[in-house]
Amino acid sequence: MEKNLTDSSTYIIELKNVTKIYDDVTVIDKMNLNIKKGEFVTLLGPSGCGKSTTLRMIAGFETPTSGDILLNQKDITSMPPYQRPVNTVFQHYALFPNLNVYDNVAFGLRNKKIPVVKLDKEGKQILQIDKARVKDLKKQINRIKKDKLLSEEDKEQRLTILNEKLDKALSTPVPAYKYKHLSETEIDEKVVKALSIVDLDELEERDINTLSGGQQQRVAIARAIICEPQILLLDEPLGALDLKMRKDMQLELKEMHKRLGITFIYVTHDQEEALTMSDSIVVMNDGVIQQIGTPEEIYNEPKNAFVADFIGSSNIYNATVIAKKKVRFLNHIFDCVDDFEVNERVEVVVRPEDIRLSNEARPDYVQGKMVSKVFKGIHYQYVIMIGHDEVLAQSIKDYPVDQPIYIGIEPDGIHLMHKSDNTNIYTDSYIGKDHCVYIDDKPFSCDLSKLIPNSQVDEDGIVTFDKKQYDFKDADVVATIAPESFLISDDTSDAEVIGEVISSVYKGDHYIILVRSKEDEDFFVATPYTFNPGDIVGLKVDKDKIGLRLKGSIEDYEI
Amino acid sequence: MKYKAFRKCLAIPFWLFLILFVIFPILFIIFYAFTDVNGNFTFDAFTSFFTSPVKLNVLLISILIGLFNTFLCLLIGFPLAYILANPKFNKNYVLVMLFVMPMWINFVLRTGALRDLLSIILNACGTTTGEHPLLCTMIGMVLNYLPFTILPLYSTMLKLDKNQIEAAQDLGCNPVKTFTKSIIPQAMPGIVSASMMVFMPTISSYVISDTLSEGKIMLFGNSIYLSFSNSDWNGGSFMSLIMLIIIFLVMLFTRKFQGEKDADRGNGSW
User: Fold this and answer.
1) Spelled out in words, what is the top-level CATH class assigned to the domain A313-418?
2) A493, HSE (Cβ side, Cα atoms, 13 Å)
3) In degrees rounded to 5, what are phi and psi of residue A234?
4) Cβ B172–A227 below 8 Å, yes or no?
5) Any idea where the domains of chain A sit in the sequence?
6) Which of A22, A90, A105, A232 best tests the B interface by mutation, with the highest count of B CBs <10 A?
């Protein structure tokens, strides 16, 4: 208990049960997140996963539909952005074009007011009722009253506490403060210092529009850090820079974080950026936190297939634990380190660099066929087919294409994950020319607007969002289909997939059936009807029921 | 070579138009402004204008009413344009159309209708339009020029950078400061072109003040019109010349504010 207490005091910001709903769409679902003082935390996830919304709620631009945001254990949920000791570096910088570099940087300081104790004529402190606190408490009471997601009991309890606090604030006078602007000399001193932190000493008088992208970026950072915020929020700040600039800025930001010692919360969809800079990474998807951990933990011990697939290229297979520390996938039994229950259906992640290659057969090596080879500078990247499964591998040695090859995996290179549910996740799907999603090289008609939340799609398959158009032809995607979305029948004439029933498990009111296609792809299907192992069945999916997520950056598909 | 010559020929209609309808009339105005009835060169019109306190007074009042009208139109038009530019309130542009539609009706008709409406209202209050000439003129002016304010403001408001507004809030601006430090500077090109659209036509307008004040308020436009209708072509021309010079000066002044890259912003809608 005592340990918990000390722990919570080191958190600078805490999100408690935060939910955000826009027009009936849940963007953030009951999120709990604690961030320690001085940490460099990255919110990582695909576009539309809610990471930017989370950041905007911390900055104060959005108010959560339900839940609390605490800053140093103080509720700031209903505090407007201009009162929060938090500053943001915006995605497109959002500099003020009517001001020059100096005035842009000084902007925050000129609005800042320093509290000075109010004294009466005899030099004694004046005691007054704290009006700001009363106002704040009233706002909080209002917010709790309006919260529809909170249970009545909780509401009642919290309202009593707040009302007590309000009564106390109304009855006890506290020392009064008056607020004073900073003097121009103080401002000047700080501006010069901030500009030197971002290496822009000589450019004070320059017009914003004459600066390069990298310089504008630096001005945006200087403008945000000059107010000495407790937390610096960065919303994909490097997105508009070219690759080399981005790499340099990543290191510089990291360096700056060390020097300033303030908490950084960084939002990005670039996993490499996240791995390079962060002390800890929060991986998000669909408004839910998937995993929180250090870069090493996230990379080496992904908690589920989503994290494994999103962080770095990896091989993910459905597998079965067949004995203690033995797992079967790629039609072979491998030794592994993770101890899972026997007969559990699991997912296996193998990083490409953990795959050993060999020209000749060895014990415990699996034979496959080398299909492609790409030179990547320090290593080659290979694609090897084993049956119908693709294996991505890396090696510094040169192996010939179209020849048999043998692969082996060390036990500690195999990472087992519990299957979150029976949702079918197909990580190597792509969008074809006919705007269908190809799962296991079979076309399924799908709704492409699912790739970007709140977008529209026209009959030519062009997706429109925020006045920009995207053509997702040949895009690599991850398709997800819930088991109950499949229509299963004996009639295979108009089926999208034909396969054989492998197993059937009764789950109380429905069966979970495993259907394996001729191409060895597995489909979990929920159905109220019985099918027997060995039956040949046809599967169909309604196009609205296929979930899609883009791999890589959305900008690549803009037209 | 042939092609180049042909391309030059394409400019002929434009130059013809320019000479016939812009340069010739200006030369005529200058000619009449500095000649007498017999066509002899003289400074009579010049001296009679600058020595007549009545005429100078009319110019001053016109400028003041012009400024006042610009101020009122901006005061009403700015929040309206801000609301119209918000897609929440203005689905399908219906509201914008409602504000712009009156412009499609001839303004003499509109002003006549307004006079009748105002006299009905004022009569019901026990007074007449003749007793409140300034009030009636200002109502007429604002109603007539409001669409001209709203459109340029609306088109700049559509382009307001939300990130910049949020950045201002983030850097400690309360709602009032956000308005003065971020929204106004961003809307400046729109404000400038809206002011131009209102200020100059107001000075030279004469139908509105004539109809609504029952001839009690005389604007510069009225006095130019009167000069010509009294066959004082030379005096009228000189005053027109003054008008042209004012327009020229205002344009020089506003260009400083607008900057080249913003020229297409507010004026783009026209």
Assistant:
1) mainly beta
2) 1
3) -125, 115
4) yes
5) 2-85+229-291, 116-179, 313-418, 426-557
6) A90
Judge whether A37 and A12 are in contact, CB under 8 Å: yes
The CA distances from residue A184 to A98, A108, A225, B165, B168, in Å, are 20, 13, 18, 24, 20
Q: Which of A506, A511, A500, A492 is nearest to A534 (CA)?
A: A500
More confident residue, A77 or A121: A77
Q: How far apart are CA B138 and CA A98, in angstroms?
A: 34
For residue A262, what are the CA distances in angstroms to A37, A195, A239, A275? 7, 18, 22, 19
Which top CATH class is B63-85+92-259?
mainly alpha
Per the CB < 8 A criterion, the answer to whether B158 and B168 are in contact is: no
The CATH topology of domain A2-85+229-291 is: Rossmann fold (3.40.50)
pLDDT band of residue B27 (cuts 50, 70, 90) is very high
Q: Please identify which residue in the block is written with the tokens 């009363």.
A: A134
| φ and ψ of A461, to 5 deg | 80, 15
Question: What is the average pLDDT score of chain B?
Answer: 85
- What integer pLDDT is reported at residue A442 of this predicted model? 79
The answer, for A332 touching chain B at a CB cutoff of 8 Å, is: no
Here the tokens at position B237 are: 């021309």
The residue of chain A nearest to residue B187, with distances taken between CA atoms, is: A98
- Does the structure's ipTM exceed the value 0.90? no
From residue A187, how far is each of A86, A139, B106 by CA, in Å?
19, 33, 56
Range A426-557: architecture per CATH: Beta Barrel (2.40)
Cβ–Cβ contact A190 with B under 8 A: no
Judge whether A2-85+229-291 and A426-557 match in fold: no
Can you tell me whether residue A308 is helix, strand or coil? helix
In the sheet that holds A315-323, the strands lie side by side as A332-335, A326-329, A315-323, A345-350, A414-418
**How does DSSP classify residue A164?**
H
Closest Cβ–Cβ partner in A59, A95, A98 for B170: A59
As given in the structure block, the two tokens for residue B269 are 């809608």
Q: State which amino acid sits at residue A283.
A: V
Every domain of chain B and the residues it spans: 63-85+92-259
